[in-house]
Write a structure and sequence with these properties.
The chain is α/β, with parallel strands linked by helices. The chain has a 5-stranded parallel β-sheet, with helices on both faces. Helix 2 packs across helix 3. The longest helix has 24 residues.
């Protein structure tokens, strides 16, 4: 059995992409990368500040460049931002350069996981749960379209999710 050269995690905010990604990378002996962390490293500011000064469009431009660079590497588990898949070029790049895993969870679970996180500019609204449901309605079909594998993180511990992914990779990859 041969593991894919790269594994790209997609899914909504709060699905566990960064948390699962770190442990999955450790389990596989891959390097862990996070596109949002890389944007922060390159700009020297947090994501809300990028949104404040450049808007979502500016952030998405930075995200496309970071994904172009990070997907060129081999032996990585990459956690992408929740909206990264909405750009067709990002979807094409992810699909062409690695194995895409969609980490799925409900909007209610996302809300519970992100309620105290002030690093989520898209949730700076009077009704974050409604916003999460709206984003999920827009993005879920796209997550499923680009995914080679779908794994639920709903009410599950990280280790359980990582074990499921590694078990399925062993069975499902050539």
């Amino acid at each position: 059995m041969t593991m894919p050269p790269n594994i790209f995690l997609v899914g909504p905010m709060g699905a566990g992409k960064s948390t699962v990604g770190r442990q999955l990378a450790d389990a596989l002996g891959y390097e862990f990368l996070d596109s949002d962390q890389e944007i922060q490293r390159r700009t020297g500011v947090d994501i809300p500040t990028v949104f404040e000064f450049e808007g979502e469009a500016g952030f998405r431009t930075r995200e496309r460049q970071v994904l172009e660079d990070l997907t060129e590497r081999d032996g990585v588990v990459l956690a992408t931002g929740g909206g990264a898949v909405m750009a067709a070029e990002n979807r094409q790049r992810l699909a062409a350069r690695g194995y895409v895993i969609y980490l799925h969870c409900s909007a209610d679970q996302q809300h519970a996981r992100t309620a105290r996180d002030r690093n989520r500019p898209l949730l700076e609204t009077d009704d974050p749960l409604a916003r999460l449901k709206e984003l999920m309605a827009q993005r879920e079909p796209v997550y499923r379209q680009v995914a080679d594998m779908v794994v639920s993180t709903e009410r599950r511990g990280t280790l359980s999710v990582v074990k499921e992914i590694t078990r399925r990779l062993e069975r499902e990859t050539p």
